[in-house]
């Protein structure tokens, strides 16, 4: 999967099972290492190169499924993959046995908008005027 995502062609989607975005990174590392004897630094660099966004879905206690977190993979720091949460599900209580809540922005904007610009979804003025990123 990581090799396919790192071929230079934009637009890949994959699913995996984990307990959260950071756990997904650990599971990816484990899957790669179980198939090839590569240095962990190489594996982590491939992950950072291949994956831009992680969307974590979970089943809540009322058995409904919700997007719980959306995180951006922003790179390596001290040898570890760094994630930046963009959105998190905020529970607001329960009504008639149903969990109520919504996905809310964390206040962190998307750090790497180069792919949006290349796709024509964002121009340089948007970023410069503070409409993108944290600006």
Sequence-ordered SSE layout with sheet pairings:
Elements: H1 2-5, H2 21-35, H3 40-50, E1 53-59, E2 65-77, E3 80-95, E4 98-105, H4 114-118, H5 124-128
Antiparallel strand pairs: 1-2, 2-3, 3-4
Helix pairs in contact: 2-3
Task: Give keywords.
single chain, 135 residues, alpha+beta, Rossmann fold, four-stranded antiparallel β-sheet, 4 strands, 33% strand, globular
What does this structure look like?
- 30% of the residues lie in helices and 33% in strands.
- The model is unreliable at 128-132 (pLDDT under 50).
- Helix 2 crosses helix 3 (40-50).
- It has a four-stranded antiparallel sheet with strand order 1-2-3-4.
- The protein is globular.
- A hairpin with a 5-residue loop joins strand 1 and strand 2.
- It has one domain: P-loop containing nucleotide triphosphate hydrolases (Rossmann fold), CATH 3.40.50.300.
- The chain has 135 residues and is α+β, with helices and mostly antiparallel strands.
């Amino acid at each position: 999967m990581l090799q396919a995502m790192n071929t230079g062609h934009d637009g890949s989607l994959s699913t995996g099972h984990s307990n959260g975005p950071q756990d997904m990174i650990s599971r990816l590392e484990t899957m790669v290492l179980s198939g090839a004897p590569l240095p962990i630094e190489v594996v982590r660099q491939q992950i950072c190169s291949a994956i831009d966004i992680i969307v974590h879905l979970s089943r809540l206690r009322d058995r409904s499924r919700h997007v719980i977190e959306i995180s951006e993979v922003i790179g390596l720091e001290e040898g570890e993959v760094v994630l930046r949460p963009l959105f998190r599900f905020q529970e607001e209580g329960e009504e008639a046995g149903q969990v109520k809540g919504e996905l809310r922005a964390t206040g962190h904007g998307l750090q790497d908008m180069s792919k949006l610009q290349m796709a024509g979804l964002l121009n340089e003025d948007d970023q410069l005027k503070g409409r993108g990123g944290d600006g």
